[in-house]
Specification:
The chain is 31% helix and 23% strand. It is an alpha/beta fold. The chain binds 5'-O-[(R)-(benzoyloxy)(hydroxy)phosphoryl]adenosine.
Length: 571
């Protein structure tokens, strides 16, 4: 990683002011695995990595589109100039607090304008946001703070309906390294973003190197502790530019953000950052219900939005009664979880916008169906990768390529797929091949047109309507209950979310009830979506021939049980 720091002329605070190159993260990336130098050179030579940082993105966008509207949230409307000015004010304020380049800052905000001013401020400082989701609670937030050795935690007094003050107190008490807790909104207990010193005395460090890590994204994961994903400015900017091109974004585009803004799909595929790069408008919604979203689409003339599959049936039903409310909408993206091909066909036939399927992952690789693909391709595949340099291997259990068209494990590497998780050496040895391919854990096949179709999953994860639950994380949590001897979490079919979680539990205490365990899991402070949806008590687990818990058998058992119950209810 040899690129020199690149600051767009006119970017604020370009002089060094006592900050040294090492502090600015140039060539120093502890805990991160770099690309092999020859490949990095190739990606630069091909113009994929252009030496521009995500802070530069906003400076360039403000220069081109200054007084045009960048963000809309309720009655709040910020121009590009306002967003840039506010992010620089915050960057100076953060610097005055002593937040330095490469410091980690856990950011847990809703779909609100401050999410953007905060992350662009951190990008400008070269400090790394760690993207927590609004649903995360004490266990996740304290884990992120500790694992990333965060110096600050930025949250909002209310996250959805949740009062986050207690969570903020708990995080501060549990994480001695956390020097600052800041609130985006009024608070009696914590300093607020509005109250940050606008210290002219605190100069900004030089702009970060584009080759440096820009932020830590969360992995859906399949292991006991959630992993962090280091993404660099250079490669992330590449995905934004290309995603914006693939989705035909222009400065006339308006994107409605209904998914959590911190999630990779909503952030960059092309998401809010892709739209800001194109000079369009980002409209922030509190939720994805048609009641909220359709009115915003009409009022703001939204042209593109992104959904998880579980929202699609209600959108389809509401669209049939929506009159010309959706007249401006050109593209409806759907991704993040398995999308039933029959439902996809209905969208293609009935919904008044072009469907685009998106199959991506926070670790990198993103596939899109293209806007001009045939309706058949759009409805029946998850598209193909962003980059001609995305390398795809589809292999059997022994890492040998499967025959064309056969289903196998998807491995990938390329100009924006990470080479390792943050500070996770042992896990990296399993999650990546020796030659740097990421083992996605997805089972796919490739069509003769070169599109990927997701056929299943080998990783031990539950995809709950796009929210990922790592089985082991929940199993370990349940096993901390004194009445539990062993636990195995598997997916069970759900008509609305696609999948829900079912915990099979071997009890130590015969009096233990499902409701006790659910209460225990809630009380332990995990995100609600990780609390098992259903609990089955058993005496033993079925085993595979090598003596592992046979999760496939458990999945079949609960699926059959549900089917029997459903037919009994219907009969
Ligand atoms: C997106 O990112 P993550 O990191 O929350 O989850 C990635 C995983 C994939 O490995 C796959 O198992 C599943 O989510 N997934 C899909 C899918 N899109 C993602 N499974 C089936 N069909 C799809 N279309 O979910 C994400 C990141 C960027 C863009 C879009 C989604």
């Amino acid at each position: 990683m040899s690129a020199m720091p690149h600051a767009v002329p006119g970017a604020d605070g370009a002089d060094v002011n006592g900050w040294d190159a090492e502090a600015a993260g140039i060539g120093c990336q502890p805990g991160c695995t770099p690309w092999p130098p020859a490949l990095a050179e190739r990606y630069r030579a091909l113009g994929y990595w252009r030496g521009e940082s995500l802070a530069d993105l906003l400076v360039m966008a403000a220069r081109r589109h200054g007084e045009r509207i960048a963000l809309v949230a309720g009655e709040v409307r910020w121009s590009y100039n306002q967003l840039l000015a506010e992010s620089l004010r915050l960057a100076r304020g953060f610097a005055a607090l002593g937040i330095r380049p490469q410091d980690r800052v856990v950011v847990q905000l809703g779909n609100q304008p401050e999410f953007f001013s905060v992350i662009f401020a951190l990008f400008r400082l070269g400090a790394l946001p760690v993207f927590a989701l609004p649903a995360h609670r004490r266990l996740e937030i304290t884990h992120f703070c500790r694992h990333a050795q965060a110096v600050a935690y930025i949250t909002a007094p209310r996250l959805g309906g949740f009062d986050s003050h207690a969570l903020a107190h708990q995080a501060r008490a549990a994480c001695p390294g956390l020097r600052h807790v800041l609130m985006a909104g009024d608070s009696d207990c914590f300093p607020t973003l509005r109250g940050l010193p606008s210290a002219a005395v605190a100069p900004l460090p030089p702009a970060p190197a584009a080759s440096a890590v820009a932020f830590l994204q969360l992995s859906g994961g399949s292991t006991g502790t959630p992993k962090l994903i280091p993404r660099t400015h250079d490669e992330y900017f590449y995905t934004l530019r290309e995603s914006a091109r693939i989705c035909a974004l222009t400065d006339q585009s308006t994107y409605l953000c209904v998914l959590p803004a911190a999630h990779n799909f909503a952030l960059s595929s092309p998401g809010t950052l892709g739209v800001l790069w194109a000079g369009g408008v980002v409209v922030l919604a509190d939720d994805g219900s048609p009641g909220t979203a359709f009115e915003l689409i009409r009022r703001e003339c939204v042209t593109i939005t992104a959904l998880v599959p579980s929202l699609v049936p209600v959108w389809l039903a509401a669209a049939a009664r929506a009159g010309d409310q959706l007249a401006s909408l050109q593209v409806l993206q759907v991704g993040g979880a398995r999308f039933d091909p029959q439902l996809a066909r209905r969208v293609v036939q009935e919904f008044p916008a072009v469907l685009q399927q998106v199959f991506g992952m926070a670790e990198g690789l993103v596939n899109y169906t293209r806007l001009d693909d045939s309706p058949r391709r759009i409805a029946s595949t998850q598209g193909h990768p962003i980059s001609p340099d995305d390398e795809i291997r589809i292999v059997d259990d022994d890492d040998q390529p499967v025959a064309d068209g056969e289903i196998g494990h998807l491995l990938t590497r390329g100009p924006y797929t990470i080479r390792g998780y943050y500070h996770a050496e042992a896990h990296n040895a399993r999650a990546f091949t020796p030659d740097g391919y990421y083992r996605t854990g997805d089972m796919v096949r490739r069509t003769t047109d070169g599109d990927l179709v997701v056929e299943g999953r080998a990783k031990d994860q539950i995809n709950r309507g796009g929210e990922k639950v790592a089985a082991e994380e929940v199993e370990l949590l349940l096993m901390t209950h004194p009445g539990v001897h062993d636990a195995a979490l598997v997916a069970m079919p759900d008509a609305h979310l696609g999948e829900k979680s079912c915990a099979f539990v071997i009890r130590r205490d015969p009096a233990l009830r499902a409701v006790d365990l659910v209460r225990f899991a809630r009380g332990a402070g995990v995100a609600d979506f990780k609390v098992p949806d259903h609990i089955e008590f058993v005496d033993v687990f079925p085993q595979t021939p090598v003596g592992k818990i046979d999760k496939r058998a458990l999945r079949v058992r609960i699926a059959e049980q549900l089917q029997t119950t459903n037919s009994a209810l219907q009969g």
